[in-house]
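Q: Sequence in, structure out?
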Amino acid sequence: MISRLEVQQTNKMIQENNLDVRTITMGISLIDCIDSDIKKLNDKVYDKITKNAESLVSTGNDIERELGIPIVNKRISVTPISLIAASCQNSSYVSIAKTLDKAAKEVGVNFIGGYSALIQKGSTKSDINLVRSIPEALSETQRVCSSVNVGSSKNGINMNAVKKMGEIIKEMAFMTKSEQSIACAKFVVFCNAVGDNPFMAGAFHGIEERETVINVGVSGPGVVKRALKSVRGADFETLCETIKKTAFKITRVGQLVAQEASKRLGVPFGIIDLSLAPTPAVGDSIAEIFNEMGLEQAGAPGTTAALAILNDNVKKGGVMASSYVGGLSGAFIPVSEDHGMIEAVKMGALTLEKLEAMTCVCSVGLDMLAIPGSVSAETISGIIADEMAIGMINNKTTAVRIIPVIGKEVGDTVEFGGLLGYAPIMPVNKFSCDAFIKRGGRIPAPIHSFKN
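A: Exactly. Output:
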C-alpha cells in the first residue's frame, strides 16, 4: 500500500519536479495472426490490436485524472513482424506497417513498435524482406516504429547486417528529407535487445512474453536533480544513497499506475522500466543532474563516472521498490530530447566520441544524434559497429538512433518537434572505415559468452 507520506511526496514531485509516467505500453502477441495470405494476416493483426487496446488510452486518461499522476504516452508493442510475416509469399511487408499504423490511429496511441527483426546471428528470407522494406514503411506511416537487433553477447555481431543498417538509415533520411529526415528518429539498431522495453522507438513484444501484458515506463530526472540539490557538496556515499532512495519513490509511483492499468484492462502486469528519460523542458534533464553532481557541463572530465553512479543507483533503488523492474531501467542520454545535452553539444563540451564512452555505463546507447546528411552509409555503419561492440563485450543493451539530416551540416540546427525536441548537427570523424565495413561476415561472440 502507498502511505499518506508517500502520497504527499509524490504530489510534490509531480508539481515541482516534472515527475511523470512516460508511457503505458501494452504488449500484444501476434503469433496467432500468422497466415500465408497477407491480406488475411493484415485483417487479423488489425482486429487483434484494436480489440485488445480499445480501452488503453481511455483507461490511461482515467488513471491520470483520478490519481493526479501525468501519463504522457499510451503505446503498443507487438511481436517482431519478421516472425509474423514469415509464411507470407510477399516480398514486401509495407502493407503490414500500414495496418499497424491504421490500428494505432484507431485506438489513439501515439506509437506502435515491433516492425522489427532479430538478426544477430543471421537472416532468414523474412528478415531480409522486412529490413529492405523499413525505409518505405517508416516514410509512409506516422506511428510505426522499427528496430533491428544485429548483435548479442551470446552470438556476436552480424556485420553484414551492420553494413546494411547504414544503407537503410541513409535511404530513410533521403525518403523523408522534406521532413528533416524524421523516419530515422523512428528506427533503432540494437545489441542485446530486450522484449519488455516499453520505450519507443525500440519497443517490441518478445516471443517469451505472455499473450498481452502491461509495461510501464517512469521518468523523473527533475526529481533526482532536486534530491541531489539537498546534498550538494556531500560525499559519494551520500550521493549514491540519495539517488537510490529517490529512485525507490519514483518506482513506487510507476508500480501504482501499472497495477491500476493492469486491473482495469484485465491484462497481466509485466514490468516497471525506471529509465530517467529527459524531455526538452528545462528542469527535466540528465545533463542538469550532472551539473548538480558538480560538473560544469555534460562532457566534462568525470561525466562517465557521474553517469555510472546515476545508472547503477537508479537500478538499485528500483529493485528495492518492485520485484518486477525490467526493460532498460537506468538513464537515457539522448541529445535532441535533453536541453542540457543540447547546450553541452553547442558549447563543444560534448562530442560524439564522449557520448560513445558514456554509453559503456548508460541505460542504452547513442540516441537521437543529428549528423550531417553528407555522412556516408559506411561511416554510419562504423558508428553502429562501435556501439554494438560495447554492448557485446559488456553484456549490456546498447543501441543507435542516429539521424543524418539531408541538407544540414555542422553548425546547423534541426527541429523535430514535441518530445523529440531539436538538435545541433554534430561533427563526425572524417577518416574512412569503408574497407573495414565491407569485410562482411560475423564477429564471433567474446570468450565470456560461453557460460553453459
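The chain has two domains: 20-191, 220-268+276-441.
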